[in-house]
User: Fold these one by one.
Assistant:
Number 1:
Amino acid sequence: MAAVSSARANALLLGVMSFAQLLLIAASVRGSVAASGTAATVGALSRPAASAGQSVSGIVMNVAHFFEDLHSDDVANVTLRREVTRLSGELDRTKELASENERLRRLLTMHEQLAPKSIGASVVTARLGSQSRVILVDRGSTDGVRPDMAVVTWGGAIGRVVSVEKGFARVRLLSDPNSGASGVIARSRAEGMVVGRGGEPMEMIYVPKYADVAVGDRIITSGLDGVFPRGFGLGRVTAVGEPIGATKSIRLEPEVDDRSIEDVLILLEPMGTQLLAGDEPEARP
Amino acid sequence: MIALWAVLGIGLALAFELALGRFAPAATHYVAVMTLPLTTYALRTSQRSSMVVGCASGLLQDFWVEPRLFGLNGLVKTILGWALGGIGARFDLNNFWGRFASGASVHLVDEGLQMMLRRMFGDAVVPVGLGALAIRGVAGGLLTAGVLSIVGKFGTSRRPARQKARRG
């Protein structure tokens, strides 16, 4: 008898807890103060454990780097390879910026801001699940980070800031199923939308059926989404699907491997969308 | 005292989860470290405590690594704590294969429930391949069995007296 009443009490407790948490999820979807207040309380309570986790991972990383440094030849090799990757990324981007500059100068007599305001950040932790792929970076609202800012690394675009706390920000990676960025094929200028597929390769959708696409083509951000500036690498085409209706979808290998991101750049303001002070047209009399 | 152990266990799990995401992020695709406290409590204590521990660890996970739906992991882990706590109260799962099966099923059901709730709240979901699910099940089962065998060396099970009596 006692067992039956205990089971009923537990079922009742489950109902109450589930209902409360469903309300909490609904509140967080609507951006309610109740959800953010609860989240802040949970965050404050768990901060010591999180700090311990960061310290442990820092120690482990330092030990790993120590052993890595023992093999100096390997290290030199890796450094050189990184430098080559960085320079090739920079070159691609410079080419893209140069052509964009040319077009803008011709059409609008505008200048391009070549040095965007950005801030460097280190990855604190990552959660690379099949339905949600997020990294946590060590820069937050106090550093001027805001939701919807683009996050990039030397290899290319990696994601956008989704929420910000005082000392850190959550970044949703491009491989997350809820992520998307407008992309353009660098060779043929065909446009489309690059979307994440969890642990699977990313896809570029809404590409016109007759667009010129070939395996190996490089895809870069087109800047049309208003988040990522034009010219950051998204990936390379690995397979071109059969057209469905008026469009075809393309599989791509990401430019940046989610599993190896350590340091990132958060773009504090969109690049190439603002006129320099002296370029503003004079008011007509 | 149980509450103190629970706080310690959840804190350790969170620290381990964050550390794993830092130096082995690929592993977070297959193992859910934050399910360990609820599995431990479900197999070693009461159904109620496993629900509460599951809820607390899920909410912590939501705060740190959930981009949009705060409360999602809390809800999923509350349900898992209730279900596994109920099964654990009826059957003796506190042996290697019991722990392995519990860990594997918790990891798989966690994924399924998350997909269902995400779809319910308007998130895009992608199908998960059978290979990835198999790896997740095996990895989760082995991790749970390993951790619970270590936990078993530090304390005795606090099952309700009636169950201990039934076991003889």
Number 2:
Amino acid sequence: MSFLSISNAIKTFGTNTVVKGFDLSVEKGEFVSFLGPSGCGKTTVLRMIAGFDRPTSGNITIDGRDVTDLAPNKRRIGMVFQAYALFPNMNVFGNIAFGLKIAGLGKAETEARVKEMLALIGLSHLEERYPYELSGGQQQRVALARALAPKPQVLLLDEPLSALDAKIRVSLREEIRAIQRQLGITTVFVTHDQEEAMSISDRIVVMNGGRADQIGTPSAIYNRPSTRFVAGFVGTLNVLKARVDRRNAQTVTIGGKTVQLAQPVESADAQGNLSLALRPEALSLLPSDLRDVTFDGIVKSVSFMGSVIRIRMDVGDEAISFDMFNSPNLVAPLIGQKASAHFASSDIFELSA
Amino acid sequence: MTLDASAPSADLGAPIPRTSGLRMIGWNWLGVTPFFLFAFLFLIGPVLYLVAGAFQNAEGAFTFDNIIALGSPNIVASFSLSIRLSLLSALMGAVAGLLLGHAVILGGLPVWVRNAFTTFSGVASNFAGVPLAFAFIATLGRLGLVTVLLRDLFGFNLYATGFNLFSFVGLSIVYLYFQLPLMFLIIAPALDGLKTEWREAAEILGASRRQYWQMVGLPVLTPTILGCFLLLFANAFGTLATVYALMGSGFDVVPIVLFQQIRGNVLYNPNLGYALALGMVAIMGVSNTLYLILRNRAERWQK
Amino acid sequence: MKKRFPFAAVLMALFGASFFIVPLIATFYFSLKMTRGELGFAAYASVFNSADFLNTILYSTIASLIAILIGAIIIVPTAYWVRLKVPKLRPVVEFISLLPLIVPPVVLVFGYIRLFGSNSWLPLTASTFGTDVLLVVGYVVLSMPYMFRAVDNGMAAIDISTLTEAAESLGASRLRTITTVIFPNVRAAIISGAFLTFSISVGEFVLASLLNRPAFGPYLVQLGQDRAYEPAALAIMSFGFIWGCMVLMQMFATRKPGQRWLLRLTTRPAQRARP
């Protein structure tokens, strides 16, 4: 039984259709991320859930109740904005207490609840501070506490970490997820950062051009992307031009080399050309029994990225990139050196659409 | 850091010499000397001279007599008149400017309306003084267009109600013509600065429109509104040409009184003049300082 | 939120607009009524034919232009120096530049008359020329806040210190830097400040009246006492003049260095694609 459901939502601004038919069912307590590039419509859908934008057509239901026509201030939703949006004329206490005050909660209860929230976000000592005296990360935590204080039924977060430094982003997203788990609140999280989405979500909705390209767990999205866009957007991808053998749909030629695939291809065009995808981690400089395909080529660039070393290789007229784990005893290949990349034929997959 | 021996080296020549400490300071201060000289000679000097003179009598001895003379009924009446007029004008300007600003910027009107008002305000806020007085005489004077139209079209005799352009109320209406644009121009950025996210955040937390304005919108705007009120007050207090052109020399606001003193049209007491000047500068100084403080407070919140 | 037709906003905007426009219409209408029974431009003709009008406006224009020149000469190097060499003095300079806003003109001229009067250490008011000097100086002081802000903003927009460093690293002397790099880039800001100064000074009344100089402001007041229709005509002309100044001021304030004045009618050879 879904707690939050959006059915066939369409949103048009003037002549521009930003959301072209969006369906989603979110379970109670689930953490769902909307992932996609700017302009894909993810924020618009979020705003429709919140009630700031009215769907041109379609319905939104929360806990069995149709809220499509309900004003935002009656939906009992909590929202965290990208720019924090803390009220500048109130201190931390005042901000967190705002929703409670509107709801008419008594003084004692308000105070107890605010203190509870402050403890949850670990900022009890900053109760008296004003927003301009807080760092970005602190402001965002206060914004989260403010949203959660009135015990909303759904929590919405609109790219809450985009304005923060990289290190804070990582620690704060863990914190958000931990709090969400503790409270068991149904949550929708909008982001353009795929690493962010994958690390903390129960499910991800990958959006592209106003539609949901794929909805699934992070692992499903990464390992079995259903469209080329999803495959390219989530993680790095090597896209190789291949040609299928007319007689055997399981045999393809890539860069002059013949490869036997685990399954027959389906998406070749009339001339037999198609695109195949290969994740960098499937490739290795070291041969093994499982890796039954070998590409020989010339190393084009070697980038030291900390824990991994990213190698780009020219194989015929294709370029592939893959990562090697860095280790102190490792000798990285030199540019211009001949090298061989090994991978398992079962790791190649087709890209549809 | 060592250079790679194999890289080609260029002869960059001798480094640019740094001037030694003392000479550098001298050169730097020279650059701003004309400004300070000018300011002291023609701005700070004269004002200080007046301030000093306020505490001296005709022989040059120190005295509080002039300050005490400020307490004489005529002078008190003048200051009272000036302050009352300035307060009324500032209040009218602040309220009208806020309402107009809200309507034009936040009211959902097309952008060209805002631009038109902004451009016009830039002109109107400078259209003070003599021409403005003429314009209002042609509008609301006894034979002014509006007066005549009200009488001929609506049978409404404006002057029969006791209204007179050449009065306290009439003058404050004339002042509004340059006060309202000034308020509009200053409040516009502040209204822009009311982030839409605040309104949305308030809304999602359950607030109605009224509650948002009451608990967030107006409180955030208050420093700017108050500051602007003070600016309008100071602006009205110092106005002379408009009053003079409209009322002649008979309307005893403080600037006019000082004007008459200088002209020598009344018993010429320069030391009293100094005291008047001191009073004016003090009032203007205090209100402008408060304005700056409030403006800084508002800017700090908008971050 | 449902969108309602903004009745209140429209009403308020209309009210504001009419408050602004009605006096202008009334004045213009009044100015056309000089010839009994018909509407005509007799009032305007009368103004332009008046020797007093021409003399006073000439006097005020010249005084304003000199004030602009002096203001620029004092303020531009100062703004430059403060930005570049003595940023610590910046608050002081800014404060002083804003002082004229709290000193009403009547107080300022009073100070001049006492400090530079016939019995003082520098009796400027004793001679006509000296009094003219005081008047011009007064205009410079009154326009200082606006002039300084305009020039300062112009310099802020082009990052003076980096430009200076670039010029000096390429070998330019300080003087050359100022004339060939800094000045052309702040020229527009200076002109913008100049127009504002111009609009303030031309119709200025208090200084001119108390220093007894034949400027435009006192002429206007005198005319207001003597005549009925010409003042209305002058009010309209004043408004138009201020409008023109503001438009030009805005135009120069937003102009980027190097922008064309008018559209080019032909392309220069260098702009055509090279083979």
